[in-house]
Amino acid sequence: MTDYLLAHAVDQLSEANWMFATVNRDEEAEPLEAPRPIPRPDSASPEHAGAPDDPPPGPDLARLTAFFG
User: Fold this and answer.
1) In whole angstroms, what is the distance from residue 6 CA to residue 17 CA?
2) CB 32 within 8 A of CB 15
């Protein structure tokens, strides 16, 4: 989980830096290439970057009843 959060934080910083640089460029300058996301652990390619496909299993009914009951 930590690796996913760290990769997401790096992606957000990279995107923020790209936006700052894009906004502060001359109007005649060529646009900068958007940053690519950091590959996540266990992902085959950057297109699959982001949260895992399968959400973690939730608590069963007995645990929910004990918590909220």
Assistant:
1) 17
2) no
Q: Which residues lie closer than 8 Å to 49 by C-beta, 6 or more apart?
A: 7, 11, 37, 38, 39, 40, 43
Q: What angle do CA 15, 26, 9 make, to 5 degrees?
A: 10
CA 16 – CA 37 distance, rounded (Å): 13
Q: Which residue has the higher pLDDT, 44 or 69?
A: 69
Q: How far is CA 6 from the centre of its chain?
A: 9
Say how many domains are in the chain.
1
Measured CA to CA, the distance from residue 15 to residue 7 in angstroms comes to 12
What was the pLDDT predicted at 4?
87
Q: Which two tokens stand for residue 58?
A: 């939730």
pTM: 0.54
User: Which range marks the domain in which residue 25 is found?
Assistant: 2-68
